[in-house]
Write a structure and sequence with these properties.
Elements (H helix, E strand, L loop, with lengths): L1 E10 L3 E11 L4 E5 L6 H8 L7 E6 L2 E2 L8 H5 L2 E4 L11 H10 L5 H14 L15 H13 L5 E5 L7 H16 L3 E5 L3 H7 L2 E6 L2 E5 L2
Parallel strand pairs: 3-8, 3-9, 6-7, 7-8
Antiparallel strand pairs: 1-2, 1-4, 4-5, 9-10
Length: 220
Amino acid sequence: MIRLFHVTKRYGRDDLALDDVSLRVEKGGFAFVTGPSGAGKSTLLKLLFAAERPTDGRILVAGHDLSRLRASSVPILRRNVGVVFQDFRLLLRRTVFDNVAFALEVLGQPRSRIRPRVEAVLRQVGLGHKMDALPLRLSGGEQQRVAIARALVGEPAVLLADEPTGNLDAALSRDIMDLFTDAHIRGTTVLVATHDAQLMRAVGKRIIRLERGRVVEDDG
């Protein structure tokens, strides 16, 4: 489902974000990517949903060869990939419901399916009572949960999450990871970037550790 072959990413001549990374996450797999700040975790995720292009190497995601992917085909890739961004990227002038529904609207889902699905996912993340609120009326943790609901609502083949529990307390972090685990059980391939060692131990999935852009440990 996810394959990287000798992937290197440079920003300019001297900024080496990823250095000759090769790894494989099978269909239906679940893995954490961890490491210190600047290790390359966010860059790796950006490459996987084609927000960035590798400097060298080859990447396969959900049947798409990203090294050959035309710009016009990027939206097709992203229909199969749910992403939880570290900075949320919510639509500030639209309600919580509309932010989550938007992910289904771009997939062309009928309105009759969108409303019950969005309501169900918002209840799952504990925001059923906030559907009509605007994002700026929410706490940081609530905004994070809206972003997670938006990523999950389309039941993507691949789910990528960049520090998805960074603004949440321990109990809510476990609730969110339970949602990711449920998606995994239903067949979604899950890759989560985090520095939360306690959370990774509690969930008990594969851990890929990066340092200075290189894979230094992989217990999978």
